[in-house]
User: Fold this.
Amino acid sequence: MENLQPEQPAPDATSAPLPAPLEATGDAGSFAPRTDLSALSRHADAIRAELGKVIVGQQALGELLLTAILADGHVLLEGVPGVAKTLTAKLLARTLAVPFSRLQFTPDLMPSDVLGTAVFRPAQADFEFRPGPIFASVVLIDEINRAPAKTQSALFEVMEERQITQDGTRYAMPAPFVVLATQNPVEQEGTYRLPEAQLDRFLFKLNVGYPTVEEEIAILQGHHAGFGGTPLDVVKAVVSAAELAELREQVRRQHVEPRLLEYIARLVGQTRMHKGLYLGASPRASLALLNGAKALAALRGRDFVTPEDVQYLAPHVLRHRIQLTPEREMEGQTPDDIVKQILQQIEVPR
Amino acid sequence: MACIFIENNRLVTYCLRFLYASLSWLRTLLSHLERPGRRLQLPRQPWLLALLLLLAAPAFAAPAPASQAATRATYRPPDTERLRELRGQREFQYVDVRSEQSGWDLFWRRFWEWLGELLNTRGGRLTWKYGIYALLVGALVFVVLKLLQVDVTRAFGRAPRTGLLAYDVANEDLETINFDAAIAEAERQENYRVAVRLGYLLALKQLADKGLIRLQPEKTNHDYLYELPEGTLPPAFRELTRQFEFVWYGEHDDLTASQYQQTRSTRLRFLQTLSATRNAA
Assistant:
């Protein structure tokens, strides 16, 4: 199932840089987190270090991918060809000691090619279910928007409920179960727009852009030094499935001030009333924003969420869940513009 | 030319008379030629025959001229009462009646007359000519600045005064809160979490009063941190913010008196640093 092909490393630096965490300058002992986040911090650093062996720059992208993994969410990476979307996803999967599979979505792909199918066994005179490549802990779906809606709908159940139902029988996915999907922008040739129901199931949609000149020079230097052949070999697994489950449990226990819950609800609710939006975000978006903010706060060494976390994640959580009106699209506005407007309309709880 | 002839009635009259005489002569000639026993001698040239026929046609078609006595018009004097009535109507009074103008209309009329006279001079014409260009250039610059969203007021060292008065935190107007009394009350009740929050809001208000930050509802604490000028203030505010976020967003309702004392000291140190900082320009 795993089809690893050599690719050119082409890191990205599109995402906004992470705000620097507030480091203690005085006596930090009185204000240490009540939850011990040292294990989480250690594992996160280990994953960052492994990614850093191959990926140049892209700290923000790596941080957001880590956030999604800790928040038990799926990620959609969008970018033009050649910006290392697939490589980044493969490297991240490789840092986790969990089963990995890769699916290359094509226009003629069928749902049974993804989920699996029942095969007749003449000797036993019965049908046997042969699991498809979706049965893995980290599933990389490359070029996800090159398959038609019929195939996409096969992913609805498995992405939300972590199970599939085949011939009346339920098959649970292994834990953890994360879908990392890549896609080209819909303007590219041969691509489809993903169904709204499927987009809603992705925790984040991360835009991957071109690297800066300095980063591209670093990529060239690394490649010239003989590093470009099989970059995956230098990356090793540093977090097991059990450790990841423990880290996720810590994230779930993060403190969230009640006014922050209201803040999240108001942000998402505003997308349903905004004049520039044809489709607002669902309550699943609120949950995604909450879970993502909790994971990001943990990665920043806090056991509580701040409005900063929510604001930082809001574009990544909302941009694929909202649809602009045709008028706004013709004006050249993007979902990120609308999210920015909404963030400016809601008072930060303090 | 045709119009000139038509408008000249006398000339038209002469032309008509001449035409009438020609036609009469032609009819007499034809009647003479058609006497019994005499064969009509038609002209040999076809174009001459056509011309004769063309000229003769109106003579046959036109009715005989009526006698002057039969067409003489009888004079009917108009009804005197009717004339008087018509003269009384406004529409038949052909004198130039001046419209009644209000004082405002007169003012504007005088103004425009004055302006017209002013602009009619050599200097006025020059001013008008180049003033229009100046206005057009000014309008163009204004539109460009608006499109680019350039804040011109900053060029003169004056920060825009927006947001401060409209800012309130969870329906609490920072301008109306008596912070000293509120913090003292929270401390007395040992509600240290609220006391930390009030202390942080006080710090924000004093930063805004000094013009170092612009209070806006959507801004986070980090936004305010980045707004501060370089120096001793950012580190102090960073530590104050860290402690506030730890206590407030971390839901530390169980904050001890010693922990609170630490946050209070941080706040007082920050306020001392702030008081030593010059106001923003």
The CA atoms of residues 2 and 8 of chain B lie 10 Å apart. The longest helix of chain B spans residues 122-148.
